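Query structure, 145 tokens:
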């Protein structure tokens, strides 16, 4: 599948530790250069929103509480976020986390284009665009997890 048509909104799943989040921030600027009028929403773990909230290229920041101690609260929180993401009707959703329940969240959010940088078998349900892993000069595949 090829991305066609206007791209007005992009959601980036940036869950993970603060260092991971900081390493991913240049992607936001690159997206804004390619799509200057796009509205970017970033989903981060609760407690990491301060890193993203003052970035001028970001339209909104959503936080996700992935506390595993209280199963009911976690499931309720996930469903609430899925409904919120669905309501926003994103054109593109890119999952840079690729682990845990984010594959399900991305699938249920039903963005027009869904991309994940993971090659787990179950990720095929969340992706509708295939990302082929790059190869180095030796012909070995880089695995992005």
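Result returned for the query:
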């Amino acid at each position: 599948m090829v991305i066609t048509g206007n791209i007005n909104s992009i959601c980036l799943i940036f869950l993970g530790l603060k260092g991971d989040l900081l390493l991913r921030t240049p992607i936001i600027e690159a997206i804004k250069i390619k799509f200057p009028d796009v509205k970017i929403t970033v989903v981060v773990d609760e407690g990491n929103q301060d890193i993203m909230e003052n970035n001028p290229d970001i339209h909104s920041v959503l936080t996700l509480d992935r506390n595993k101690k209280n199963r009911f609260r976690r499931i309720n929180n996930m469903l609430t976020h899925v409904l919120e993401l669905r309501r926003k009707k994103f054109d593109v959703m890119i999952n840079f986390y690729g682990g845990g329940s984010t594959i399900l969240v991305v699938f249920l959010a039903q963005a027009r284009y869904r991309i994940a940088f993971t090659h787990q078998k179950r990720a095929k349900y969340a992706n509708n665009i295939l990302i082929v892993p790059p190869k180095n000069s030796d012909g070995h595949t880089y695995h992005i997890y």
